[in-house]
Structure formats: structure tokens, C-alpha cells
Description:
The chain is elongated, with a radius of gyration of 35 Å. It is α+β, with helices and mostly antiparallel strands. It folds into four domains: 283 residues, no CATH class; 89 residues, Thrombin, subunit H; 142 residues, 2-Layer Sandwich (Alpha-Beta Plaits); 230 residues, TIM Barrel (Alpha-Beta Barrel), CATH 3.20.20.450. Strands 14, 15, 16, 17, 18, 19, 20 and 21 form an eight-stranded antiparallel beta sheet that branches. It has 25 helices and 43 strands. Helix content is 37%, strand content 29%.
Amino acid sequence: MKTYNIKYENYEALKLFISHNDIIKHDNILVQIFSGIDQKEFIEEVIRNLIALIPQCKIIGATTDGEILNNKILNKECLISISIFEKTQIKTLIIKEKISDFDKGVKIARTLISQDTKVLISFADVSIDGQDFLDGVNSINRNMIVSGGIAGKSNYLDKTYVFTENGVEEDAVVVAALESNALFVNTASSFKWIPIGREHKITEANGRIIKSIDHLSAQEFYNKYIHSNSSEEIVHTRYQFPLMIKRNNNYVGRPVLSYLNDTEILISSRIETGEKIRIGFGDLNSILKGSAEIYKNMIQYPGESLFIYSCSARKHFLKKMALDELRPLDDNSQACGFYVYGEFNNVNNENTFYTETVSMLLLSEDINAKIRINIDDTKNSNYVDAEYSTLYKFLITTGEELNQLNLTLEEKVDEKTKELEKKYHTDELTGLKNRSKLLIDLSGKKYDKLAIIDIKSFNDINDFYGNTIGDLVLKDFSKFLDSYCDQNGLNSYRVYSDIFAIVDNQKSKDEFIDTIKSLQKIIHNQCLLYEEGNIYLVVTMGLALREESLFEKAEMALHYAKKNKKIFQIYNETLNMYKAIKENIVWTKRIKEAISDNRIVPFFQPIVNNRSGTICKYEALIRMLGEDGEIITPYYFLDIAKKAGLYKELTIIMLDKIFEATNKTNCEISINLDIQDIESQEIRELIVEKLEKANNPKKFVFEIVESEGIEDFDEVEKFIREIKKYGSKIAIDDFGTGYSNFNYLMKLNVDYIKIDGSIIKNIHRDKSAEVITKTIVAFANELGIETVAEFVAEEEIYSKISELNVDYSQGYYFSEPKVSTY
């Protein structure tokens, strides 16, 4: 192959150049146009002239922020690069449909990538999100090299265009695919900005807009470190001190383009909430040395043509020294390119969008060819004074030390988290995974078959032999169950007390049923020997196979078996008895009538400070009043209200009445919400409206019902941030059951954990409940979160939780829920 480069002047000069180099006689010709002139009519004229003179050529091009011709930088010129291939086929494509940038990448990859495709040269308009586009390509083939970048412009008033032989477009992507068995392709890039300071977290972002970092407004954060107070000032610092985003354990630079409103900043590509960043620092010597390293590498590979796609941010930072990056090239290097608004690089077999890099694409059809590079001209070591260079060395050393410290701390946190999770997810008595772990695994669709096993009349064993023997029976049964499951590719859990579970996702339905029946037969045919006494176990089993709500259905099968004096039952639809359906209809009618008659009311239960022994806050609890004045707890109607579509209406009524009733007290008031409430825009807006009008919004605590599961963390985090603007607080309710997960506490900025009553009510006689409570309290203390014990029903329980340093208590030992707090 060979590349000819020419500055476009007019048709006649171009015609003479093409004729002089005998270009027309070749079949496979790729023309790249790098236009510093942003006039669409001009670019269309150049394309028409090229097609007239070389009708067989394929064309791609883009507007630029400067053109590169060997070792020179041009400005507002039109540079034409004509590459002639002997053994390579060329395909071009322009994507201008109104589809997502990700889908643009997918379409290009599916259309152009074949078995022989070696590289995609692609240019995208400035409106395209470079990383989204590359993610689309990666989703089809992440190993395919994509080179090129985003179209540039000399100033913000200029328009950007990309084009092929088929037209000039905005909001589009163009690409040339090179297909060959004989084409050698090598790429390289250099960045060399370094991360300094500690790691920070993006706490709110939307596309390319960063709203907050470490819960500070983005502008406040950037001003704190860079001392830039306006868009005008950051022009002088944004290239030297970009934000550096941590992705795949590497940092990619993103300069701050401008300030928006009074709080937000705009960067050059999408960033996600939760991503980690550090401030970057650019050193001129290091950047130029990085460029020199590329050239030294390039001469080791076959090379006939070199294409340079360098970031305009890099050019503006280097200023006059940008020419030093090109110094090793000479007038005959067959090198050209342009300054882009972001570069496409394939690093570690994945295409990634970068800024502030210089990226090079080296092509050759001759294995013995070498590009013309003068290595002696890469020794650029004296551009900056020694003092500046010393500062850089200091920063890079301390930055590496801080980075290592961050990694060590992350490892220790992960290790402690795993230790606590293991303890929390393991049954202390038997060593099996517990109910919490089972529900987490089932919610993640990890298994599709479940058997729940109930040891019949186990209380009789405890009563007759004592709890010590009863515990030994459970331990031995668990060992046997675990061993059987290991041998048969199953997994076992202790759900609670004498209830166990077995799960599977590998066997067929029939194989699983046969394996569980064989287990039941073995259990019934063996005996356990304790102190010369023979103990025979009989178990009842309920199975659910490939059902939604697997645990619920298996429990239903178990309950049906026990009720009907069977020992084995597989769930089926007929187990949903008509009586339950009729009860649902009756209760739905009662709920509607209670709403209509204003019989949905809040009751208030006091919460006691365990240190002072005084009432310091209340929880508002929903109650339904019967027609005869009967007080009906939510146990009877709340789940039915959800299924009947009445739940939102109940929430609205409760919010109205709670806020109205609590205007007369300054005690802290807790209000229960579940995920349905948080996901409802109407409910969120109502809560904000109530807080804005409240005489003291700081007294309200919103309890998220943890047992419902928290899947959309982004929505929950957004809600928490909103209500905390008013000084309100957040509690996680029912912690310790359902989908309990310590990760919630690290991801959500909560103030209280309410330990579930099913744990607290047995804490004075159940060692495992005590251990779980200790673990929760210890973890909460580490995070600065206060704890509340629910279901404190007697003095012995209160003494135990006080001894365990639980902060607050709530339960019938102090008071049942009442109509008012005063």
C-alpha cells in the first residue's frame, strides 16, 4: 500500500496530483478527508471532485480542530489522504438513523465486521457519545480494532460534520472497514496525565452532566480543588487538571468543558452515578516522553502509512510544544491525521473512548516495510525547568502511594464485609446457609426447583429428650443432609428451627423429584442414637418446580401436605383453595368501604431511648376501623390492598393524616414506606410537598420496609437525597429477614436500622438471635447508624437488648399503638 497526502486547493490542482501519481489505475482506494473548513457546500464540492476523478474510491472524513501532515500542524485547511491498497478490500458506511449511539455501534459491527476485517476507521459527529457507540461495537466484537474519533472544530461556533462518498451529515457516524488476509494493523496511544489526591465518588450524574461529587455540587467540588469559579476560568485549567474516571482499574481523562447553572459541570462523555474519580495532573515532559515511546514501538512493526488521531485538548494544553510530538516524522513519512474531540482506542482487547491522548494507526501490506521515523528526535527532555519536573516526580510518587493505600483499604473493607456476610448468611447451630441466604439466592433466579423439609413433631423430641439432644439431632440431620446434597449436586439450607430446604437448577423435574423421594426414604429408614435412645425422624416435604415465587409455592405445598396428613406434596394451581379467593374478595370490599367511610387511620407506638429510658419518638402505624369500631391491623388487609391496586390510596391517606396529626408535637415521627411508594412519582411528590409545608420537617423519619427487597438503588438513593434536603431521616425496617443485605447499609445513607421482631422476640432464649443482633449492632456502629429493636414485649427482652447496646426499643412492653401521641 501507499498513501498520498495533499492540501486541497481546487479541482485542477487535485486532478494534476492524481494524474501525476497514477492513482486512477488502482481498484482499492480509501480517501480520508480532514477538513478544517466547516462549510457543508465546500465539503460536498471536494467529495464530488474526488468521485469525478477517482470514481472507484471509498471516502470517509470529518471536520477538524487542526490537520496533521507529517511533522506539521495545519489550521483551517482541507487535507486529503489517499491510500492505495493492493490486497485489501474497503467498505464504507454512514449511520444517520435516529437510534441510540449504542445501537449505531451495534449496526456498524453487524453490517461491516467479517472474518477478514482487520480494522474499522470511524469518525463520529460531536453529538455522539463516543463510549456508548464503542460499547455497541464491543457488544458484538470487542476484539475488533476501532480507530479514529469524534469530529473536531476550531471554535465553538463552528459546525461539525462527518461524511462518506454518499453524503455529508450531522448527528451521524461514518466508518471504513478494511478487509484483508495480508494487512498488518498496529495501534498505540499515549495519555500520561496522572491521578493525584484521593478517590471521590460521583453521587449524581445524568449523561455528560455531573451534578454532585461526594454529595457536594460538582462546581463546588471542582472549585475546592482547582479554585476555578467560572467557565472562563476553567478554560485555563481544565486540560492540565481533568477529571480522571476509574474504569476497569484504569483511569481515563475527561476535561471539564464548562459550568452549567450554578451547580453542574459538563464533560466530554457519559459518566454514571457511583463511578469513582480522581483529579488529574498533566506534566509537559511526561506527556512528550509518552509520545516518544509510541514512535520507538512503531518502528518495530510493519508500516507503510501512519494515521494520527490526536485530542484537541492535548493540542491546546501543549500549545507550541504540540509540534514537538510530531518532530520524529519528516516530510516523507506518509503520516497524516487530525485533531479530534475524543479518540477511539482498542486497549486490552476492548474499544474505549479516551480524551487527551494521541492515538496512532499503523498500516502495511508489506511485512518488511518500515515507517520513516527519526528516533533521535524523540529526546524531548528539556522543555520544562527542573523545578517543575521535580514537582511532577513528587506528585506521581505520592499519587502511587495514595492509590496503593486506597487499594489496601478497599481490600480490608471487602474482607470484613465478606466475613460479616458469611456470618449473617450462615446458621450458627448447623453451619448450613440460612433462610436469608436462601431468599437472596432465590430472588436472583439462581435456582428453579425447591424442596422444603419439615421434621414432624420435633417439639416432642425437645420436650422428651431436652434441648441439648434436640440440638444434636439438628446438627446430625444437617450433616447428613449436606452430605446427601453434595453427592447429588444439590444445595441445602436451614430455613429456621426444624425446617430445611434443598434447591437445584441442573436436574430435570423428574430427576429432582426422584432424588428428593429417595432422600425421604433414607431418612425414614434410619435412626439416630443418643445416650442409648433410638430417635426416628419422619419428614414432610413440599416441592415447587419452576414456579414464580418459588419459596411461597413450596411453603404452600408443605402447608397443604401437613393439613391433609400427607408427607410429600408438589405444588400445583389446585392448592390455591377457593376459600382464600373468597376471603380476598371480601377483604377488598371491606378496604374500599373503609376508604370511603374515612376509617383508615394512623395509630402511634412510642419508641424508647434505651439509655435514658424515656419516650423520644413514635412510629405511625396504619389501622383500619371496622364498622363496629374494631381495630384491624394491617396483617389482615395490607397485602390484599397491594394485590387489589388500593395500596397507593392507603399511602396517600396515611401521609395526609400523619402530617396533620403531628403538627402538634415535635417528637420524631416514623412513617413506613415500601418500594412501591418510592417508585411512585405521585407519592414522592406528595412527600416533598408535605415536607415543604411542615413546621418541622426534621422530625420525620421514613422507614423503608427492607423485607420487600431493594432492587432499584438509583431510585432509592435519589429519594433519600431529596428528603434529606429537608433534614428528614431514613430507617431500614424489618432488618434481619427477607432480603436482608449489609450492602444496603453501605449503599444507602440511612440513619436507623430497625431489627426485625422475629429476631428480637426470642433474643433472651435463642443464642443465634443474640449473635445476629450483635453483628447488626457492631456493623451499624461502624457506619454511625443507630439501632432500634422491634417487638420488645417483656422486661427480659428489654434487659437483653440494652445489654447488647441497641439504642432504642419499641414494643408492647412499653405501650401498644394508640390513636395519638399526646
